[in-house]
Design a protein that fits this description.
Blueprint: H1 23-40, H2 49-58, H3 65-73, H4 80-94, H5 104-113, H6 120-163, H7 178-196, H8 200-210, H9 216-228, H10 232-245, H11 248-260, H12 264-281
Helix pairs in contact: 1-4, 4-5, 6-7, 7-8, 7-9, 8-10, 9-10, 9-11, 10-12, 11-12
C-alpha cells in the first residue's frame, strides 16, 4: 500500500445520512469531478475508467469497473472509503489538495447528508415490474373492449332478427347480407378469444345464444372460422348445437354448404349428430 493511503479501508459505509441531498446529486457534484480529475491527471493523456480502478487497486482499494460506473451514475451507494480513496487519487494525480475544487472535508460532510436508498436496485426492479404489469393490464383491457364490441354487434343482430323473423321456406328465404356473414365471423373470433383466454364457459354460452338465430350461411361461416383456427372443442360444440336445436332443413342446408366449401368431414359430422338426435326423439322434425 502506498504511503498516505494506510487509513483508507474498504467496507466503511460511513454514518447513516440524515439530510435531503439525493444520491444522483452527490455523484454529479463530487464523485464524477473527482473521477474525471483522477482520470486526466496533471499531464499526459486521460486514463480510462478501467485504469482508474486499476490505480485504486494498486493503492490498496479494490473496486470493479462496473461498480465504479454505478457509483458515478448515482445508481448505487458507495462506501465512504471509496470516496476517500477516489479523492486521494485525484489529489495525487492533480497535485492539488483540492482536486476539482473539492476539499475532502466538504466531500465527507456532504456524504453524511445524502439520503441514500439501501434497496434502490430492488425498488427499480419492482417499479419496472409494476410498469410491465400496467402495460399488460392495458392490453387486456383493450382486448376486452374489442370482445365487448363484438358481443354488442352480435346482440344487435339478434334483436334485429327477433323483430323480423325469417320468411318461412315455403315463401322464400330471407335475404342474406354480406355484412351479416362478416358479423358471424367476427363473433366466431370473439368466441375463440374468450375460449383461449380461459373463459370457456362464456364462449360456449355465446355460441348457444347465437345458434338459434344464425342462418345456414352464417353458421357455416362460424364453423369455417373455428375449423381454420383449429378450435376443435368450440367447433364440435357448435356442431352439436346446430344438430340438436335447428330444423332438419337447416341442418341439411348447412351440410350442403359445408360440402360445397370442401369440408365434407364437417358436413358428415353434423348430419350424423342430427340423425342420432332424431333417433332418440323418435323422428326428425
Amino acid at each position: 500500500m502506498l504511503e498516505g493511503w494506510s487509513e483508507v479501508r474498504q467496507g466503511d459505509p460511513g454514518a447513516l445520512p440524515s439530510g435531503s441531498a439525493g444520491r444522483g446529486g452527490y455523484a454529479a457534484r463530487y464523485l464524477k469531478p473527482l473521477a474525471e480529475t483522477a482520470r486526466r491527471g496533471s499531464a499526459g493523456p486521460p486514463a480510462s475508467q478501467r485504469y482508474v480502478a486499476q490505480m485504486l487497486a494498486e493503492r490498496g482499494f479494490e473496486v470493479s469497473e462496473s461498480s465504479m460506473t454505478r457509483y458515478l451514475k448515482g445508481d448505487r451507494r458507495p462506501d465512504l472509503a471509496f470516496v476517500r480513496a477516489l479523492h486521494r487519487l485525484a489529489v495525487e494525480r492533480s497535485g492539488s489538495a483540492r482536486p476539482a475544487g473539492i476539499a475532502w472535508a466538504a466531500a465527507a460532510e456532504a456524504y453524511e447528508r445524502v439520503v441514500w436508498c439501501k434497496n434502490c436496485a430492488d425498488l427499480d426492479d419492482e417499479l419496472a415490474e409494476l410498469r410491465r404489469a400496467d402495460e399488460a393490464r392495458a392490453q387486456s383491457l383493450a382486448r376486452l373492449a374489442q370482445e365487448v364490441a363484438g358481443l354488442r354487434k352480435l346482440s344487435k343482430a339478434v334483436r334485429r332478427r327477433a323483430a323480423h323473423p325469417p320468411v318461412p321456406p315455403s315463401v322464400g328465404d330471407r335475404r342474406r347480407e354480406p355484412s351479416d356473414v362478416d358479423a358471424a365471423r367476427s363473433f366466431a373470433a370473439t368466441a375463440s378469444d374468450l375460449y383461449s383466454s380461459g373463459r370457456r364457459e362464456e364462449a360456449v354460452t355465446a355460441l348457444g345464444e347465437a345458434v338459434r338465430f344464425l342462418t345456414p350461411e352464417e353458421a357455416v361461416a362460424v364453423l369455417e372460422f373455428l375449423h381454420a383456427g383449429l378450435h376443435t372443442q368450440l367447433r364440435q360444440s357448435l356442431t352439436q348445437m346446430i344438430a340438436r336445436e335447428r330444423s332438419a332443413g337447416t341442418v341439411i342446408e348447412v351440410a350442403v354448404e359445408l360440402k360445397g366449401r370442401h369440408m365434407a368431414d364437417l358436413a358428415d359430422g353434423i348430419l350424423a349428430a342430427a340423425a342420432a338426435g332424431a333417433s332418440l326423439r323418435g323422428g326428425w322434425a
